[in-house]
């Protein structure tokens, strides 16, 4: 008789969230990104590293069409989110950016209360039907961003009155409030002190359980601490992409090796 028992086992299939093929970016006549191919995994932190001006932020901004806001910028090639072309003219960039949220280098809370900073996105995207539901989303988002305990008694106070590290976690709460699937972070710790940096790094590790996180960082130590995958960019090319441990201990390309050993950068 056939053995019909189903063997339970850990299934650890890492799925592609975003795929880029043949991506070129131009600022006017200047060719800033050249033929970038990459698959970004779900529930994974991917770090983009490389010397200043190599195109890390430009590529990050391609992933939620933030480059659309720069007049002279032109993007070619294909980028898909869950298999759907994000540059399809039928895609609304505002809706896309709710799914692919972004946190910037400098914390940039709106000049509004802590509550309103987080409530804004769910309100404009019509994600709630009642004040009670909105309160719930605000609390959940502030908890996910590990700042609830610090602000729960002053939700009406201005977001801009928080410390830099708290403001950045508020911006992360704002980004997660629309229930995104991908979180893009452009040097999110560069304006923070070491303690706030450690808090945000810990948070990034927790967010990975729910999102695909992509982080641009100048700090190789940070990339090594927070990411599972690393992409090394140089002069507009994605030179090498792989497991973070492999990139830092056994890089395959001499340019990657020069960068991580401090010879370029
Ligand atoms: N808005 C813009 N207009 C014109 N050129 C730009 C613009 N933004 C970036 N560039 C150019 O595109 C190239 C890539 O820049 P990008 O900011 O993506 O690099 P980066 O690797 O993120 O650099 P950094 O680490 O210094 O932030 C650079 O040559 C830069 O000067």
TrEMBL record:
Top-rank taxon, per record: Bacteria
Cellular location(s): Cell inner membrane
Protein's UniProt keywords contain ATP-binding: yes
Keywords on record: ATP-binding, Cell membrane, Membrane, Nucleotide-binding, Phosphate transport, Translocase, Transport
Family annotation (CDD domains): ABC_PstB_phosphate_transporter
Pfam families in UniProt: ABC_tran
Single GO biological process annotation from the record: phosphate ion transmembrane transport
Entry GO terms, CC: plasma membrane
Transmembrane regions listed in the UniProt entry: none
Topological relation to the membrane, as annotated: Peripheral membrane protein
Function description: Part of the ABC transporter complex PstSACB involved in phosphate import. Responsible for energy coupling to the transport system.
Occurrences of domain ABC transporter (ranges): 18-260
Any one GO MF annotation of this record: ATP hydrolysis activity
The name this protein goes by in its record: Phosphate ABC transporter ATP-binding protein
PROSITE patterns registered for this protein in UniProt: ABC_TRANSPORTER_1, ABC_TRANSPORTER_2
């Amino acid at each position: 008789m056939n053995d019909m028992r189903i063997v339970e086992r850990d299934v650890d299939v890492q799925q592609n969230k975003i795929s880029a093929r043949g991506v070129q970016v131009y600022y006017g006549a200047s060719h800033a990104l050249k033929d970038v191919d990459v698959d970004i995994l779900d529930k994974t932190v991917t770090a983009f590293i490389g010397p200043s001006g190599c195109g890390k932020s430009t590529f990050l901004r391609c992933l939620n069409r933030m480059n659309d806001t720069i007049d002279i910028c032109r993007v070619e090639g294909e980028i898909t989110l869950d298999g759907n072309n994000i540059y399809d003219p039928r895609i609304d960039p505002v809706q896309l950016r709710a799914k692919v949220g972004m946190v910037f280098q400098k914390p940039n809370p709106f000049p509004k209360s802590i509550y309103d900073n987080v409530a804004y996105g769910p309100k404009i995207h019509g994600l709630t039907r009642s004040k009670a539901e909105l309160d719930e989303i605000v609390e959940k988002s502030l908890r996910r961003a590990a700042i609830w305990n610090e602000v729960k008694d002053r939700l009406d106070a201005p977001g801009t009155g928080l410390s830099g590290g708290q403001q950045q976690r508020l911006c992360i709460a704002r980004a997660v409030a629309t229930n995104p699937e991908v979180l893009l972070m452009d040097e999110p710790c560069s304006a923070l002190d070491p303690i706030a940096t450690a808090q945000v790094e810990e948070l990034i590790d927790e967010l990975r359980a729910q999102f695909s996180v992509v982080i641009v960082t100048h700090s190789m130590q940070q990339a090594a601490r927070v990411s599972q995958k690393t992409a090394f960019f140089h002069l507009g090319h994605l030179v090498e992409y792989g497991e973070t441990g492999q990139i830092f201990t056994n890089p395959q390309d001499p340019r990657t090796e020069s960068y991580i050993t401090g010879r370029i950068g």
